[in-house]
## 1
Amino acid sequence: MEKIVYLCKLFYATVMIKTIIAGPCSVESREQLRIVTEALAAMPRVGLIRAGVWKPRTRPGGFEGLGEPALQWMQAFAAEYGVRYCCEVATPDHVALCQRYGIGTVWIGARTTGNPFMVGELCAALRGSAMQVLVKNPTSPDVRLWLGAIERLRQCGIADISAVHRGFEMYHNHGYRNAPLWEVPMTLRREMPEVPLLCDPSHIGGSRELVAPLVQTASQFDFDGLMVEVHPDPDAALTDGPQQLTVADFAALLDNLAPLAAHRSPLTERQLEPLRRQIDEIDHEMLSLLARRMEMSRQIAFVKRDLNLPVYQSDRWSDVVADRLQQATGLGLDADFTRALLEKIHAESMRVQLNVGE
Ligand code: PEP
Ligand code: MN
């Protein structure tokens, strides 16, 4: 029974994954590209092969990609194996070369998305073309930069745009190469529901053990597809070796993705509805309570003013946090979540108190 429930969950969890892009971080040789292309061409769910031709390296001295020769091989193998490739572009010259070698899809890398000048130059180079463009999130968790890059592309007449979530560089990445911060791609999803959204678990995880669990987590969110790094011999890879999957591991990952099914059906709706009603009710109660709490903040601000006391009382605030954290622990709530929530509430309370009587 447990197993059936688990399988159902897996089935339900993976219904949204439609687009699958896979391939090596970088093209390293004609033979490496041929081997991986042959393997991926035999997997019908793989719609596009990714293969980096120019590699952005954090520090100088590493492998920076093969450039034009790689594009020549890609053009030849596209015809031979009936596949389509995509690669990263970071300059107008890259765009022109991709067009020359028949690459129909390009992606804008994380370091480029964060720079509106560079995005502008790429847009100018892409103007008038029918290329598909994938926009990776910027390295910082600023959803506006990500949205802005998509808007700039649209203004240049690019119609086929998807977004790729590859995680964010943070001071604390909690074991990931790039922190997933799932709420950021979900904000993009809400702002631009029409833009297909893919997840790149390879660059989020940074190690191959994390790729399958990340796919599992991603499938609990609203993603349309995946971009996964796959290499014939990851341990010998010239870039991102630790995070690339072998062909066999990638095939197993695909096998674990259930076939497509309707996300919303009368059955799922019927089962979710009563629980959703309760959640709605609780949210409404929470908001009423928050409004009451802010009213108390307003009242206490008048008293503090009459007594000539400062608005911010650090001892009182430390006591509040300690007390609420203890209660939260007893209630089974996560301590980090509780602290973050309390800080938000306190910041709003400070704002309300500082504005009293103005
Ligand atoms: C890549 O996909 O190989 C890459 C360099 O990606 P990102 O821009 O997400 O770091
Ligand atoms: Mn890579």
## 2
Amino acid sequence: MGKVIVIASGKGGTGKTTTAAALSSALAAKKYRVLCIDADVGLRNMDLCLGLSEMALPNFCDVIEGRVSLDEAAFQHPSIPSLYFLSAPSLVSPEEIDPEKMRELLDSARRSFDFTIIDSPAGIGSGFRLAARFADSAIVITTSDVPSCRDVQRTVMELRSLGIEDISLIVNRIRPKLLKKSNQNVDDIVDTVGARLLGLVPEDHSVILSANNGIPLINYTTRGAAAAFSRIAGRLLGERIPAGEIKPIL
Ligand code: ADP
Ligand code: MG
């Protein structure tokens, strides 16, 4: 049975969509069958990070309402063959989606894919709960700023109240000089959030350039943030990979 992982954070803009796209691609590049689901209902933008914005993409409501099967709907990535994608519906609110049908969708995803990665919307409201409640584990994303850490701490509590115990943390957009100036270190962030550290991702303009150019990050570069996400994918697979030093890129 495959594993369903939700990517969450309290705050918007911390890098959930970037992480969901990059981790899905990195796992698929290691030949695992991966389904990436954009669950940011109404504000979807995962298609941009995966370089699929020009494509006609089925959304996960097409599957849960029975219009197509998961196998028919899951869109195979043209340059990463074991990566499949389901978009978010743009004209539906999360409250209109039957959670039981979401559970059925994820159960069949577990049978067909090694990993299902769900990109959650910001906040801890109904969209977040729909995305998270049937996941097996969660990865929370924070930047180093204090409001983001506090929001993700709250998100960790919400995830636990949904019954998710396996929660790990990625600190994204790290700028070593900024950490030094704020007298902060990664241990402080891990302590605040209360989840085990899965990885560190540097601030890297390749993330923005790759999305703007419609190229998945791991196809755009093998350095910086792309290398960090590949290491994180390895760690998710149980490989013992050191965190790696975060060197200033900008
Ligand atoms: P969220 O899904 O949490 O709202 P996004 O993944 O959409 O966040 O990221 C928000 C913005 O930050 C995007 O413009 C993205 O390109 C940028 N970004 C995310 N991670 C990084 C990074 N490590 N370095 C530079 N820019 C980043
Ligand atoms: Mg997003």
## 3
Amino acid sequence: MPSLDSRTALIVVDVQNDFAHPEGSLFVVGAEQVVAHANEAIEEAASAGGLIVYTQDWHPEHTPHFERDGGLWPVHCVGGSWGARFHDGLQTDAGPVVQKGVDGNDGYSGFSTRDPQSGERQATELESILRDASVEHCIVIGLATDYCVKETAVDARRLGFTVSVRADAIAAVNLNPGDGQNALAELAELGVLIT
Ligand code: VGL
Ligand code: ZN
């Protein structure tokens, strides 16, 4: 496994109340462990001189992402709401925050968003933050394994980074039983190391 150093970025995906707090609208079972283990990972990355970047799901009140507007999900992570805030237990001062979903764009990856009408993809600032810091390896943790963690890890591979996912610091929505396990299997196929 690549050692953790200044060429490593820890990407902390969407550890926000709606996913990570039991009262959140899209609470992910197992998220309590994720907060604790994410903090450990943040400490480790920080002491090794690695870059830490947080992502936030950040939706408008209405978006085709939400069930009430024709999509899949209950209303969650509406920008500026309690649900969109980081979980209180998370150490949040270790690096920059990249928001996705802003302007009603869809998609799950921290690296890109997708216009729900045209399907057009647009990069977020995540890749340039990593390139500016000469990052080579990404460690992806957070929520949720089967959506934003997976898509962020897939994009990181596609962009040429080596990637690992820390299994103790992720949890899955599991809309269908096994989705989380299947996501990890797909990632392993792409050469993502599950640690
Ligand atoms: C996510 C479902 C909807 C995630 C975001 O962060 O994995 N999942 N929006
Ligand atoms: Zn969302």
